[in-house]
Amino acid sequence: MTGTGTEAATSAGEFDYVIVGAGTAGCALANRLSEDPSRSVCLLEAGGEDDWIWFRIPVGYLYCIGNPRADWGFRTQPEPGLNGRELLYPRGKVLGGCSSINGMLYLRGQSGDYDHWRQLGNPGWGWDDVLPLFRKFEDYAPGEDAFHSQGGEWRIEDQRLKWEILEAFRDACVAAGLPAIADFNSGDNEGVGYFKVNQKRGMRWSAATAFLRPARNRPNLTVMTRAQAERVDFDGRRATGVTFRQGDALKRVSARAEVILCSGAIGSPQLLQLSGVGPGDLLAEHGIAPVAERAEVGGNLQDHLQIRMAYKVSGTRTLNTMSASLWGKAKIAMEYALNRSGPMSMAPSQLAAFARSGPDVASADLEYHVQPLTLEAFGQPLHPFDAFTASVCHLRPESRGTVRIGSADPRAHPLIAPNYLATEGDRRVAAAAIRLTRRIAGQAPLAPYAPQEFKPGPDYETEEDLARAAGDIGSTIFHPVGTCRMGPDAGAVVDPELRVNGVEGLRVVDASIMPTITSGNTNTPTLMIAEKAAGLIRAAARA
Question: Distance of CA 455 to CAs 46, 201, 257, 307, 316, Å?
Answer without folding.
Answer: 38, 35, 53, 9, 20
